[in-house]
Amino acid sequence: MHMINQSIFFAIHPDAPKDMRIFGDKLKKSGTRGASSSVGFETKELQPTPGLQIPELISSYKGGIDTILFAFPSIPFSGDSERTLAYQSLIKELRIGTNFIIVHYKTDRAVIEKWFTSIGHDSQSISWVPIPNYVDFTDWAEDAYVALKDAHDDTYYLMEPWEFPRSGDQLIADSIEEYTSLHASQAPLIFQGGNCLVADDFWILGKDYYQDTINLIQDQTLPLRSNPGQKLEDLVRQSFYDYVDKKRPMFVAGTKKKIPLAAYVGTQEADKFILDIVGAGTGPYQPIFHVDMFISLIGKNKKGQFEIMVGSPELGNELLGLPNRAHNLQEAYDEIARSFAKQGVIVHRNPLIHYPEFTGRRIAVKHLQNLALQNPEDQDVNSLMKDLLSLGARENDVADVRNWHHITCNNCLVENSKNYGKHVYLPTFGHGEYTELKVLDEHMKAMWEGLDFTVHQLGDFNSFAKRQGVVHCISKYIKRSD
């Protein structure tokens, strides 16, 4: 998957969060790892099953949230009280009786436990997975696996991709296996939790990792071999069927052609040159690198048709009075929305904001020229230089750095349950200096209420959005009830 050069990105925007969800996403050739043995956190011990017979992914929307997993990398997140408050707002809204698996540093357990018990969650409902303090991991650890059960014997698994290079997140599944009754397993495929959504009669895989899987079979990094006459695409689909979900067909969501977008764009407004960082969250075939950032699952309507929401920057710009720009990639969102509609899925369009924010940094054109000279193979920074020079910028000029990130309510938790009714847990953004985003919060609340959902508005998730992730990214549905 094409990702921007991290060293250049941080040279341009040194104050950016170091734990952005997009970093560590670039694949490399590597060997395999073994899985550790399983110990049950329930009173009984579960024997490992040699391979799944009928893998079935845990739904992204259907049923009550019985068990949910969080990974808390540090408390109080290096002084980031906004992040702590956001987590607490989610814990407060989740139903009393929900079970939790908490990945944490041992030293933080007492603090985290109070987050739960102080609002009525029973400490007995928490399974603790301690991680040594010297192991680095992120709160995006749910991306390192998908949750599924073997419908043959009702055992639950975390299925890991062949490789996952971000931080220590790839160690989490094995630790969970050690402390709980979940098993960890590994598939010879490329995927991430946030690029998978699980509907009723189908599941969605973002095209970027589908294509990565094909590419890594072709260069023999993955141990998958096609039979004579078998198409690579058929081999990939068969492998996802065998390892990930045997109950539902896979829908690949993405554009047909690669999205032509440079990570940086040089523009001019009034008499100022501007360096826009526009491509940090974009994938080769996806307007945002994970589908959970721009698609929400709703459920089946009374006619039996499945309904989803797909984000629209145009609607977001309309809400905020922002101009539409080419790098908002409206056409890519529209193409993906049409691909679902063609399959008979009812598609609602909701506002999603590609949000511009000046970083306060000014960078000399001469410095950018040097970056381009030092990195002649990097198309992004060389494209930026062409933009600025064509606008008349010269060595002694400076450009103001403006970063773009996605403000999205699509990244939420959904419960469409017989027993508990219909609930959605929505991030909010209209806080502090971002009060203009309140209009988005209220629009999304009304939109879900119009679909007969009880809306649980959560706290301020701006600090997550700036790192290219929100609520669905920091949690993993492990088990659903009716």
Tell me what you see in this structure:
- This protein is an alpha/beta fold.
- The chain folds into two domains: 199 residues, 5-stranded Propeller (L-arginine/glycine Amidinotransferase, Chain A), CATH 3.75.10; 217 residues, no CATH class.
- Helix content is 25%, strand content 27%.
- Helix 9 packs antiparallel against helix 10.
- 46% of the residues are buried.
- How far apart the termini lie comes to 37 Å
- How many separate domains make up the residues? 2
Structural class of the helices, strands and pairings? alpha/beta
Overall geometry comes to: globular
- Count of alpha/pi helices: 12
Adjacency order of strands in the biggest sheet: 1-5-6-7
Count of DSSP strands: 21
Question: Portion of residues in helices?
Answer: 10-25%
Radius of gyration: 22 Å
Mean pLDDT: 90
- Tell me about the biggest sheet? 4 strands, mixed
| Proportion of residues in extended strands | 25-35%
Low-confidence stretches: 25-50
Key attributes of the depicted protein:
L-arginine/glycine Amidinotransferase, Chain A; 2 domains; four-stranded mixed beta sheet; 27% strand; 482 residues; 21 strands; globular; alpha/beta; single chain
Topology:
Elements: H1 6-12, E1 55-57, E2 64-72, H2 81-93, E3 99-105, H3 109-117, E4 126-131, E5 146-150, E6 155-160, H4 172-179, E7 183-186, E8 196-198, E9 203-206, H5 207-218, H6 232-243, E10 250-253, E11 264-269, E12 272-277, E13 295-300, E14 306-312, H7 313-320, H8 330-342, E15 346-351, E16 353-364, H9 365-374, H10 379-390, E17 398-407, E18 413-417, E19 421-428, H11 438-449, E20 454-460, H12 462-465, E21 475-481
